[in-house]
Every structure is written in structure tokens, then in C-alpha cells.
């Protein structure tokens, strides 16, 4: 890319924002995140189209989580005269607007589920940004929130968990309840941050099936993972992150390959493919 091209693109987009129907969901240009005086992530150019399904792959400490936090606005890049982040073509989208468009599922959220509440209340809490239904909510609104939570849980095939105490759920069941919680406010994009961490094969199967259900229903999926096994067939694009930068960005079929994965993780690896599914094995 010629010097100044990315800067010119961002400036033009900021001055002439595209209609929401055609602007990328997220656009990064020369976005740098610093911590303790050093750059922990630098992204020269990245576009996420509205409705697109992608996966971010990389080793621990590569910058994947920081990349996701750029998407969710939990961290901000260094200020520049030309905005490094455009959300649907705008550089001044509010945090509330971003949160309305996003649902986030993370294994770390499960650590916060330490209160005896029915699973339906935990899911309904996604409408209020709280662990459960706020006590200040009037009865009619609380009933409506629980009804919406039940419908969402039904969509994901976990109707049998409605009234279960979340403290009694298996790890896999609790993870699926968290997916419902992220979905309950009907976001257009769902971010899955290492969603299968700590799950047994049964839990992994149901979480991956939930991702497929949502993708097939028209939700955009942004998956962050170490494992090709998590990359569902509906995801067509991979972004490989290494040493705080984009290492490669392209079609799944070309990047889920022995040479790409070995270079990404710095160990000899082999990729097995069965139809639309991929798995990773060490070549030792």
C-alpha cells in the first residue's frame, strides 16, 4: 500500500460517511494500542463488513484479545488526526450504539456467575447489563424480559435450563446460557472470545452448533480462538494474529494449511480436513 493511502481513505470516510447499509461494520487504519509505554497491537488496515463471519487465530499473547477489545471499544487506539477507527463509517459512534450492535461471549464471564439465580434471569440480565433482572425494574418489564430470555434460550435449544439454578449447570450448559445472554438484545454481530475454553467434547459440540445456528439465522460471527476445530463452516475468512500484528488475512481454505499454521505457532503442525471441518495436529 502506498504511503498515505490508508490515511487518505480514513479521512475521506470520516468526511463522507457511507450509508449504514454499505459502510463496513468496523474499519481500522493505522490503529496502535499501547500499554506501559509499548505497542501491544498495531493494525495497518482491517475492514469487517456488515454481516461478515470471520475468525481471529493466533497463539497466546499474540494480541487477539486486544484486537477484540478494539472492536468492542473496551480499549482505544492512540489518537490521530485521521480517526484510526470507524464504526459503520463514523468516528464518533457512542459506546451505547456499539453495545447495541454487539453481543459478547467469553469464557471469563462464567467466573462471574457465582449467585444462585435461575438461568432465565441471567439471560434476561443481558437486557440490563446486569447479572440478573434488576430489582428496580417494574413487574411488567421484568416479565417481558424473562419472556424474551425464554424465547432466546428456546432458539438455542436450552429450554430445559429456564428454571435451573446457574450454579448447578455444567460448564457447557452455563456457556450456552451465556450465548443466550449475549443474544437476548438481538445484536447484529456476536463476538465469541475463545468460547470453547474449559469445555469437554460435548460442551464444545453444543457451543459450535450454537454458533452455526446463529450464523445461519443471519447473525455476523467474530470468533477468537486458538483452534481450527472451532472454525465453523459458515466462517469463510481468517485473520491470523502474531506478535501484536496481522500476520495474514484471507480465505479460510488457503490459510488453514500446514505451512500457515506452522509459521503462526512456530512449531510443526498439520491440518486435517474433513468436508467443511478442520482439525490441527502436532507433527512431532
TrEMBL record:
Query: Do the record's keywords include Glycoprotein?
Result: no
Residue ranges of every copy of the ABC transporter domain listed in the record:
26-268
Instruction: List the Gene Ontology MF annotations in alphabetical order.
Output: ATP binding; ATP hydrolysis activity; ATPase-coupled transmembrane transporter activity
Please give an example of a GO cellular component term from this record: ATP-binding cassette (ABC) transporter complex
Record's keyword terms, sorted: ATP-binding, Nucleotide-binding, Transport
Q: Supply the Gene3D superfamilies for this chain.
A: P-loop containing nucleotide triphosphate hydrolases
Question: Has the keyword ATP-binding been applied to this entry?
Answer: yes
Family membership, please give it: Belongs to the ABC transporter superfamily.
State the protein's name.
ATP-binding cassette domain-containing protein
Amino acid at each position: 500500500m502506498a504511503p498515505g493511502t490508508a490515511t487518505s481513505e480514513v479521512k475521506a470516510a470520516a468526511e463522507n460517511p457511507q450509508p449504514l447499509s454499505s459502510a463496513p461494520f468496523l474499519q481500522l487504519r493505522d490503529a496502535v494500542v499501547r500499554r506501559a509505554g509499548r505497542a501491544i497491537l498495531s493494525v495497518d488496515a482491517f475492514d469487517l463488513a456488515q454481516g461478515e463471519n470471520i475468525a481471529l487465530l493466533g497463539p497466546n499473547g499474540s494480541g487477539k484479545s486486544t484486537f477484540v477489545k478494539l472492536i468492542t471499544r473496551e480499549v482505544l487506539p492512540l489518537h490521530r488526526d485521521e480517526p484510526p477507527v470507524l464504526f459503520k463509517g463514523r468516528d464518533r459512534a457512542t459506546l451505547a450504539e456499539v453495545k447495541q450492535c454487539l453481543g459478547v461471549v467469553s469464557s471469563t464471564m462464567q467466573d462471574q456467575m457465582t449467585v444462585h439465580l435461575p438461568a432465565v434471569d441471567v439471560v434476561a440480565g443481558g437486557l440490563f447489563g446486569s447479572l440478573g433482572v434488576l430489582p428496580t425494574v417494574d413487574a411488567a418489564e421484568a416479565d417481558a424480559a424473562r419472556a424474551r430470555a425464554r424465547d432466546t434460550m428456546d432458539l438455542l435449544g436450552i429450554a430445559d435450563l429456564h428454571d435451573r439454578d446457574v450454579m448447578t449447570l455444567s460448564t457447557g450448559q452455563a456457556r450456552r446460557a451465556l450465548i443466550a445472554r449475549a443474544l437476548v438484545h438481538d445484536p447484529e454481530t456476536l463476538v465469541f472470545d475463545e468460547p470453547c475454553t474449559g469445555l469437554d467434547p460435548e460442551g464444545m459440540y453444543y457451543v459450535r452448533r450454537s454458533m452455526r445456528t446463529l450464523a445461519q439465522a443471519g447473525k455476523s460471527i467474530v470468533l477468537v480462538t486458538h483452534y481450527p476445530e472451532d472454525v465453523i463452516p459458515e466462517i469463510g475468512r481468517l485473520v491470523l494474529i502474531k506478535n501484536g500484528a496481522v500476520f495474514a488475512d484471507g480465505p479460510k481454505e488457503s490459510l488453514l494449511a500446514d505451512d500457515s499454521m506452522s509459521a503462526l505457532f512456530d512449531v510443526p503442525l498439520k491440518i486435517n480436513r474433513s468436508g467443511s471441518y478442520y482439525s490441527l495436529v502436532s507433527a512431532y
